[in-house]
Amino acid sequence: MKPRAIPQYHAATQRGFTLVEVLIAVLIFSIALLGLGGLQALSLVSTQVARTRSVVALQANSLAAVMQGNRAFWRAGSAPATFNASGGIITDPSGLLTAGAGTNCVFATAPTSGQCTAQQIASFDVQTWSTTMNALVPTYNATVGCAGGVTAPFTCTLTIVWTERFATRGTTAEANSSATGGLRSYTLYIVP
Predict the structure, then answer these.
(1) Model pTM greater than 0.90?
(2) Least C-beta-crowded within 10 Å: which of 9, 86, 141, 191?
């Protein structure tokens, strides 16, 4: 019996990674990490944009609900034809929604009947909505216009405009949309 020969390897076949190969691998890995970091930043900003748009839609529906809940004021023809809300401040040319602003007549004692009037409820509801909207989306401006009467259906149009911050493709930081033309609007048609 012959002993089995152990193969001998040449020095050329026993080499490992060279320093250049390691550096190239590290460079490729670093570029991939930078790309993932950019995607992460963009996804966070996109999530913020979606959050703001959802809040605006929910708040618009909230105002529609309080208007439908107080039909005695909004459909009776005594509602203002238009009013604006911005920064928690109501601008009402008729003065109906700004009269007694800040008074929660539900918990206060009304002088004669002990109940609130439809106008007092509407004023309180709109003031509360505007304050809440300002806390959630400080750059908003809302306009409500109502039309109709006895013969035509009574409808209101609510338009909310706000400045949105977003990241554009190729950047990882937020940009001010007023500089890039990013004013956004949401319109809701309401039938109180």
Answers:
(1) no
(2) 9
Provide the residue-wise pLDDT of the chain in tens; the chain has 192 residues: 666 766 665 555 556 678 888 899 999 999 999 888 888 877 887 788 888 999 999 999 999 999 999 888 888 777 888 999 998 899 998 888 887 655 666 555 555 555 788 888 889 999 999 999 999 999 899 999 988 766 667 889 999 999 887 655 555 455 554 444 478 999 999 988
Query: Using CA atoms, how far apart are residues 145 and 79, in angstroms rounded to an integer?
Result: 10
The residue among 174, 84, 98, 173 whose CA lies nearest residue 134 is 84
Q: Which residues pair with 47 in a beta bridge?
A: none
Both tokens assigned to 66 = 């309080």
* Cα Rg of the chain, angstroms: 32
Please provide the distance, in angstroms rounded to a whole number, between the alpha carbons at the two ends of the chain.
Answer: 105
| SS3 assignment, position 69 | helix
Residues 83 and 144 sit within 8 Å (Cβ to Cβ): yes
Q: In this structure, are residues 53 and 184 in contact, taking their beta carbons and an 8 Å threshold?
A: yes
Q: Looking at residue 130, what DSSP letter applies? A: H
